[in-house]
Amino acid sequence: MHDGTAYAPQDDTLASGDGTGPPLRDTEFHRVEPGGASGTITRSIAVEMPVAIEINGVNYAVLMATPAELFDLACGFARAERLIDDLADVVDIDTHTTPDGILVRLTLVPRVAERVFDRVRHRVSESACGLCGVENLAQALRPLPPVTMPTRATGADVFRALAALADHQPLNRATGAVHAAAACAADGAIRLVREDVGRHNAFDKLIGAMLRSGLSWDGGFALLSSRCSFELVEKAVLANCPMLATISAPTSLAVQRAADAGLPLRVLARPDAMLATATPSLEVF
Predict the structure, then answer these.
(1) Taking the domain 49-140, which CATH number applies?
(2) Lowest pLDDT segment from 81-95, 112-126, 174-188
(3) Rounded alpha-carbon distances, angstroms, from residue 200 to 98, 206, 222
(4) CB-based contact 258:280 (threshold 8 Å)
(5) What percent of the chain has pLDDT over 70?
(6) What are phi and psi of 110, to 5 degrees?
(7) CA–CA separation, 188 vs 166, rounded Å?
(8) I want to staple 66 with a disulfide (CB 3.0 to 4.6 A). Which of 37, 93, 190, 196 is the partner?
(9) Please, what is the end-to-end C-alpha distance for the chain in angstroms?
(10) Closest Cα partner for 179 from 212, 211, 209, 204?
(11) What is the Cα–Cα distance from 145 to 239, expressed in whole angstroms?
């Protein structure tokens, strides 16, 4: 184990039935110290495996993910891809285990079905034309809607959530190898957490869990145990998240996309300090 504490799953009925295997595995290692080998130990490691997302019969994507809360992952992923607007657009979800990984089948209502095929057309080009990538480049940075929900959280509230985050990461306590995405109330209280080996997957799982439970941001914010990449900014904006806080630094494109959408960022959030990129009209720091 990472710290001698056994893994315990999130106390949450949303996850029931949508994981197809244990998220960690005990593995034997030979421990080596500077003075030489000191014996064999058993340590829990995070499970990472291919998870294929099939949407309305179309093989849409393959993610390398932790095999837990896969219904949350599928819903959050579909929202981030702009394939659904809310949970009402989802007719059914099921999982199927294969020798090569896990298949998650998502069925959407006819109203949004064409979005799947349109998105696939932009992602895969059959043309040999030298300019065929131009349209795909434009699709990579599609316009974002503005964030309309203001945050009521202050800097002190972000520090409060940051201090509590480790207590809500049972899988990371056991393995030391997974990311967390937390939905935090305006006062910094952590309301819901999802974990995964992939930072994008963890955030998709969180957003999907919020969709499935009808949980709103209510003036709070998201806290991620990762760097702030532009993909995570876009997921936050599309979920109308009032503010995004990350433990590591942002990229230039993340800062630009957040500013374009009016999303306040709190980055390099550590116990002693954090950096703020502000949209003053929407926040209090």
Answers:
(1) 3.10.20.10
(2) 112-126
(3) 23, 10, 13
(4) no
(5) 83
(6) -55, -30
(7) 14
(8) 196
(9) 39
(10) 204
(11) 10
Question: Could you please report the per-residue DSSP string of 145-177?
Answer: PPP-SPP---HHHHHHHHHHGGGG-HHHHHHS-
3-state secondary structure (DSSP) of residue 253:
helix
Residue 13 has pLDDT above 70, yes or no: no
Q: Which two tokens stand for residue 84?
A: 């659904």
Please tell me whether the overall predicted TM-score, pTM, comes out greater than 0.85 for this model.
yes
**8 Å CB contact between 6 and 174:** yes
Return d(Cα 122, Cα 126) in angstroms, integer. 10
Over residues 90-101, mean pLDDT: 92
Q: Which two tokens stand for residue 49?
A: 């495996």
Domain at 155-282, CATH homologous superfamily: Cytidine Deaminase, domain 2 (3.40.140.10)
Residue positions annotated with a catalytic role: 129
pLDDT of residue 137: 63
CA dist 34 to 1, 28, 31, 183, 186, Å? 22, 20, 10, 42, 47
Of the given ranges (64-73, 113-122, 213-222), which has the lowest mean pLDDT?
113-122
Task: Say if CB 18 and CB 4 are below 8 A apart.
Answer: no
Instruction: Name, in order, each residue with C-beta under 8 angstroms of 97's C-beta and a sequence gap of 6 or more.
Output: 20, 21, 103
> Does residue 129 carry a pLDDT above 50?
no
Delimit the CATH 3.40.140.10 region(s) of the chain: 155-282
The bridge status of strand 101-108 relative to strand 58-65 is: unpaired
36: region left, alpha or beta (phi > 0 left; psi from -120 to 50 alpha): left
**Average model confidence (pLDDT) for the chain?**
86
Task: Outline which parts of the chain fall under CATH 3.10.20.10.
Answer: 49-140
pLDDT given at position 6: 43
